[in-house]
Design goal:
single chain, mainly beta, 47-stranded parallel beta sheet, about 5% helix
Length: about 700
Amino acid sequence: MFLLLSSLAPAATLTVSEDLSIAQAVELAVSGDEIRIPEGEWELSEVDVGAKELTLVGESLPTLSVPADSRGILASGGRLNLVDLQFQGKGQFIAASHQELVLSGVQFEGGRAEQGAQISLAGGVLTAENAGFQQGQASDSGGAIHATDADLTLSGVVFEDNLADNDGGAIYLERGSLAVYGGSAFNVNEAGSDGGALYLSGVTANVGDSLFQGNALYDGYGAAVYFTGTALSGEGTEFIDNEATYGYGGGIYGSEAVSAVFSDCLFQDNHAYRNAGHIGMYYADGALELDGCVLEGASTTYGHGGAVFAYVRVDTVIRDTVIRNNSTRYHGGGIYQYYYGGLTLERVELTGNRSTTYAGGGLYSYYQWTGSTVSLTDVLIADNEATLEGGGAFVRYAGTLVLAGVRILNNGGPEGLYGGGLFSSQNDTVSLSQVEIAGNSATYGGGFYSRLASGKVDWRNVLVRENVARVGGGGCFVEQGILGVTNASLLGNEALDHGAALCLYDAHGEFTNLLVADNRGEGAVYGEDSDSGFYSSFRYSAFSGNDGGHLGGELLDEELSETGDLVDLDPALWGWSQDGDFDNDALALDPASPLVDAGDPAILDADGSVSDIGHNGGLAEDWDADGDGRVGRYDCDDLDPTIQDCVEDVPDTADSSTGEDTGSSTTPPAESGCGGCGGGLGGGAWLVGLLVLGWRRRR
């Protein structure tokens, strides 16, 4: 009976005083008791909680002072709740094993230990809410917390100015799980080696709704987070101004059996001395997925991957994301993707990125293996620079390269060598559909350079305009391969030597429904060798206004007498300004244009009529951006379903006696909603529609 009554006895409350120390109170307490600690400073040294389940509550945030070379609290196998307390001193604050620790409103300042200056946990659970961890120092790892085989849940916590001589400036966690949320912050933590703020090994980790700012490492990996054997994720996470001083990964860096999935995230102004300004994945055997993120302002001093570095067996998928104004010394100012992986970009902006000495200003992708796919859909690649190949993008040794709904604008730079917009080399199959390549520059292939493609390089509905080559191939240069073109326009390109629009070197083209107009330089389409001249063919194609001749080199103008070709007829394009502004031109055909219904009869326009010549001809119904059932020349503004016809019946020739209209204008009126049919890609601005309607940035 006595034992039964004792087990049902209510929990006791003990209050620390001058006559009752914390150690004495803990010794007297039994599981379930509460110990209250009044305001003031109290010494805490080698207090052994054992396996008891206790709650220590502070009144007005008392200070618990832990002497040097001492441990404050020891616990094993029980549960310890700490509420509204402040730990200070030069010892280790808490050393626990197989323990459940619950912290609320607890502040840690200082602490010294080999591992885990403030908390060392070998097995168990740590839950912290509204807690602070500051100025912990570990001579090995875990400046504030060192945990193994543990599950950590942190909400509304702040880790600041913690230091580990080796790994994990704030937290070292090996095996277990980590959940961080509630506006938590990791600021100005530092590690000598890996993980300026977090070191994670064999962990499932979510760091959502958190800020990592000003963290650093001296010579290692991951200025904010290093992870290995870990699945890392986060929503609404921000990584700002972190630095790998002489190391890799200005933001996060993962290696060996890792994945990283982030949404609505921000990576800003991070820096690495070596590779990976923002994000690094190395021999990952896993995926990198970004959705709705912004990656900007990163840099590397001597490395690859200004923003993203994905090296060996990384499948990268990036959606609805902006990657801008990042730079690297070597390859891949925006994205560096290397060896055995896949790359998918959907509704992504790659703008203002730079490779200062090598290739791939916006994107560098190399050897993704024969069966892999590099796929870009509704992507904007603009204002990127590289010194060698691919000012906008460099793709080599991919199984399949697919671009659909992509705009490649104003890339290259004054020193770019090959492919100012896009450099494609030794890819098995290459497909461009609904693509615009405009305003790019390079020494060879101002807009596009294609080299050694195993299969046919296929273009459908491609617009190449106002690109410049300092030597050859103003719009495009094809070296050793077959270029198959159906419905494309080469307009206003320039080569200072030859091939104003297109240069073929040991290659040939099969052209159908091609428009070549207003290009400047010797031979708008130029064949460097006899094979290029002998095997190339033009069907239902139109040439006009090319000041250095329509064909050149081994290509002779007699070849333009083939089936359906039109020579020296004004194509009657609306909104063709050649002013470098690629959003104010419609490039739609006047209804009276000789190119209307003059294409290959086997190819049909959206209304079922014979296809038009040029990049807007032969468009399928499923490329109708605003869903009004009209595409190409039948829709003046494909962003607005209420605006369709570019021509209205307006008074233009009135009978002098009756004042009645006697004809329809062939000039688009300003009131038509087109502004002269301006809108980007012409006759519906199909690509702009896909970009704008498919995704609008919220940041």
